[in-house]
Design a protein that fits this description.
Its EC number is 1.14.14.21. Pathway: Sulfur metabolism; dibenzothiophene degradation. By secondary structure, the chain is α+β, with helices and mostly antiparallel strands. The chain contains 12 helices and 7 strands. The strands form 2 sheets. The protein has a 4-stranded antiparallel beta sheet, with no helix packed on it. α9 packs antiparallel against α10. It is globular, with a radius of gyration of 22 Å. Bound molecules: flavin-adenine dinucleotide. The site of flavin-adenine dinucleotide has 18 residues, from α11. Flavin-adenine dinucleotide binds next to α11.
């Protein structure tokens, strides 16, 4: 159980709190990136401020904000510091898992903990296997009758500082379950071995699970989610899309500021300021149009997702497919734009923009790293297959 936290009352309040939190994050983002510092205090403040409870159902006392609002919260936080913004991405996914597949008792207990400020990390992905769906971690009954969890995970964003670590494992029948494990439980070892060149403060490294005793009441039968059309995959993906779109906007704004305040004009331009050079204005106008298009696609995807959720507890294959495609398009395009803008601004800012003192390369490093989460090419393929052949995207957790 975490300490007390503010309970957010409405979508409007969620955005106000996000703006205040983003303002507090913005100034320290470059320093946290340079030092690859674990943002312990920042994450504690996130919990206290109430943003972690945004998607807890209203009947349990949560704000139950729309996806449109949650995505906008993510976009604004990511524009300030995408590393800190990515840490709770899986938190909301595992709140959603409890909402859809948890028992009433699990929802009351674990989501009550979330309202008090608890955060879910995650330990899902594994290295050394054939592909991301090839999983070795097992949750099996031991001779003494307890359930034991064994395996090694990587890409465990948020696990290092979480209250609970939801772990993907296969049970005795080879079915996918989520075991919600307290971070401090015996046999749980979260390493600080994350050395990526971007999203450095996410600390997305290894979690080792050795004979961890798991209480049966902390296990959720996640395989059930995929027996019917679902939007939980799209929900996780749209939060990633918001992070990329946030980075794109921040890179554009930082690039424009640098051109206004520091860049000098090229001698052939016959201008007093780089900010008056027609070619610079043209290129910023083109990049700005792409960022705004990415923001519009993101909002459209969030609205489509909200519509699928509002259509009932079990959306139709068509509603779920429409949401997944809209999210896939927003994520693939948003990621492409983030990488392009974060790179292109350097050609407009000039040589001194490469000075490490400005840390402007963090936008590109963060965008390039974060967009490796899962390949954009498959999003476009699913989209193309729908446009040409009318085929809905597959019903899995990564689209
Ligand atoms: C910043 C960031 C954060 C992420 N956070 C999460 C998260 O929180 N949760 C989540 O589920 N996913 C997360 N991911 C997604 C993760 O990228 C994918 O889930 C996936 O595991 C990557 O798979 P890949 O196919 O790209 O393989 P890669 O990870 O590129 O691996 C390629 C191959 O090399 C092998 N390999 C590489 N290094 C080692 C090693 N040291 N030891 C053994 N084998 C090795 C792998 O086994 C594999 O065969 C994150 C990704 C990024 C970029």
């Amino acid at each position: 159980m975490a300490g007390g936290a503010h309970v957010v009352g409405s979508d409007a309040e969620a955005l106000e709190i996000a703006d205040a939190f983003a303002a507090a994050l913005r100034d320290g983002a470059a320093e946290r990136d340079r030092q690859a510092r674990v943002p312990v205090e920042e994450l504690a403040a996130l919990g206290r401020g109430g943003l972690l409870g945004l998607t807890v159902p209203a009947r349990l006392g949560g704000a139950d904000v729309s996806t449109v609002t949650l995505v906008e919260v993510f976009r604004r936080l990511a524009a300030a510091d995408p590393s800190v913004a990515q840490v709770p991405q899986n938190h909301y996914v595992f709140v959603s898992v409890l909402r859809h597949d948890g028992t009433e008792e699990q929802q009351r207990r674990l989501l009550g903990d979330v309202l008090a400020g608890a955060r879910f990390g995650n330990a899902l992905s594994e290295r050394g296997t054939k592909h991301v769906m090839d999983m070795r971690t097992r949750l099996l009954p031991a001779a003494d009758g307890t359930l034991r969890l064994n395996g090694t995970k990587y890409y465990c964003t948020g696990a290092l500082t979480a209250t609970w670590i939801p772990v993907f494992a296969l049970d005795a029948q080879d079915r996918l379950v989520v075991a919600y494990v307290p971070r401090g439980a015996d046999g749980v070892d979260v390493l600080q071995d994350w050395t990526a060149f971007g999203q450095r403060a996410t600390m997305s490294g290894t979690t080792r699970l050795t004979d961890v005793v798991v209480a049966p009441e902390n296990v959720v039968a996640h395989w059930r989610a995929f027996e019917r059309p679902q939007v939980s995959g799209a929900f996780g993906q749209i939060l990633h899309a918001a992070i990329d779109v946030g980075i794109a906007g921040a890179a554009l704004a930082d690039g424009a500021r640098f051109v206004r305040e520091k860049a000098r004009p090229w001698f052939e331009a016959a201008q007093e300021r780089a900010a008056d050079e027609p070619h610079v204005l043209l290129r910023f106008g083109q990049l700005g149009a792409k960022v705004h298009a990415a923001e519009a696609l993101l909002r459209r995807a969030a609205e489509t997702l909200d519509a699928a959720v509002a259509s009932g507890p079990r959306p139709s294959a068509e509603a779920a497919g429409a949401a997944s495609l809209a999210v896939a398009e927003a994520k693939a395009f948003g990621g492409d734009v983030a990488v392009e803008v974060a790179s292109e601004i350097f050609g407009l800012m000039g040589a001194s923009a490469s000075d490490a003192a400005h840390d402007l390369d963090r936008h590109w490093r963060n965008a390039r790293t974060h967009t490796l989460h899962d390949p954009a090419r498959w999003k476009y393929v699913h989209n193309g297959n729908h446009i040409i052949n009318g085929v809905l995207p597959p019903n899995h957790g990564l689209v």
